[in-house]
Specification:
The protein is α/β, with parallel strands linked by helices. The chain folds into 2 domains: 185 residues, Rossmann fold (3-Layer(aba) Sandwich), CATH 3.40.50.2020; 135 residues, Rossmann fold (3-Layer(aba) Sandwich). The strands form 4 sheets. A 9-stranded mixed beta sheet has the order 15-14-13-16-17-18-4-3-19. It has a 6-stranded mixed beta sheet with strand order 6-5-9-10-11-12. A two-stranded antiparallel ribbon has the order 1-2. α6 links the parallel β13 and β14. α4 crosses α6. The protein is globular, with a radius of gyration of 21 Å.
């Protein structure tokens, strides 16, 4: 089970943050380069993980205690099975419950459904809050091609049916997810980015970098991050706007273009919510390199890294990630910070 860290307050919950004092620094494997860029990750693990779900009980001071002895297994037919420990009945009444769900597969969604049902049966009437850093299906926030499902609406309806007292999410990909979820609490990139950089000792980068929005959809997110950094710097933070288009039928991306000037003599930090395969960021880095010789960095809130870190390493001097997928940890080895 991944180690859980506590951090900033959000909606009465102790939010598990990427920027507490226990955040980790990782370097990616590289056999061909002696000088490799730093990969800054939170809560990565090289151990086998049976579930991405954890249960806590929380007292009036917001102190959270993990429930030990939860059982998550798969039957031979593929069905998931969840069982609470017998000792759940010995925990005093009057507490709040918090489910932390790192949604990385369909099995994780089923685990959440089953755990919530088991907890309501064992502890009827007691409040349950959901902490869900990554919102699955947020990238399917509309019907792009006739015949598709509205996947995000289906998922949010499922979460709403569980009637959590609150649902806390981190930098969701789409405002549509916020609109569809009931009783949602949002941590924005403006909250997360400055603290992530500071915790990783990137104070100079935080004080000097210009930010890059990789596409039109990211501009509002990146501007909020720039505004937050501007308050810390007491001067405006430049923002570079890139543009690209995606074919909704094939998913293919057009080559990016830069709109407006690129600041010279300062590092550039590309900011986005998700890195999946990383192809978009590689194309963007190649384009930015035509405009500047300054160091390039990448920040993503949610790191899927489905094709590994190695391709990105060739283009970025440092990669920051607030919430890496635990199953992506196979690409990393721990190094001293």
């Amino acid at each position: 089970m991944p180690v859980r860290h506590s951090g900033s307050e959000s909606g009465g919950l102790r939010w598990p943050t990427a920027y507490g004092s226990t955040a980790c620094v990782f370097h990616a494997h590289s056999s061909s380069k002696s000088c490799i860029p730093a990969i800054y990750l939170y809560n990565a693990s090289n151990t086998e993980i049976n579930t991405m779900i954890q249960l806590y009980h929380q007292d009036s001071t917001n102190s959270r205690t993990p429930v030990q002895g939860l059982s998550f297994i798969s039957f031979p037919g593929g069905e998931r099975h969840v069982r609470l420990p017998v000792a759940i009945q010995d925990i005093p009444s009057g507490l709040n419950w918090v489910i932390e769900a790192r949604m990385e597969s369909p099995a994780d969604i089923m685990d959440l459904l089953l755990l919530t049902d088991a907890l309501r049966r064992a502890r009827p009437g007691e409040p349950i809050a959901l902490v869900m850093p990554y919102v699955p299906y947020a990238r399917q926030d509309r019907v792009a091609v006739s015949g598709e499902a509205f996947s995000l609406a289906v998922f949010c309806s499922l979460i709403n049916s569980l009637k959590f007292d609150s649902v806390t999410v981190m930098d969701p990909h789409s405002q549509v997810a916020v609109d569809l979820l009931d009783r949602v609490v949002v941590m924005s990139v403006a909250d997360i980015l400055p603290s992530t950089l500071k915790a990783q000792g990137a104070d100079k980068l935080m004080a000097t970098a210009a930010l890059v929005a990789p596409d039109k959809g990211a501009m509002a997110r990146v501007q909020k991050a720039a505004d937050a950094l501007s308050v810390l710097r007491t001067r405006p933070v430049p923002v570079v706007q890139a543009l690209k288009q995606r074919d909704p039928a094939t998913g293919a991306l057009s080559s990016p273009v830069i709109q407006g000037p690129v600041p010279q003599g300062v590092p550039l930090l590309v900011v986005d919510d998700i890195c999946d395969g990383g192809g978009t960021f590689i194309q963007l880095a190649e384009l930015l390199r035509q405009h500047t010789d300054a160091p390039l960095y990448l920040y993503v809130t949610h790191g899927i890294f489905s094709k590994g870190i190695e391709p990105l390493m060739q283009h970025f001097q440092g990669i920051f990630c607030a919430h890496p997928f635990a199953r992506a940890s196979q690409h990393f080895v721990a190094q001293a910070a």
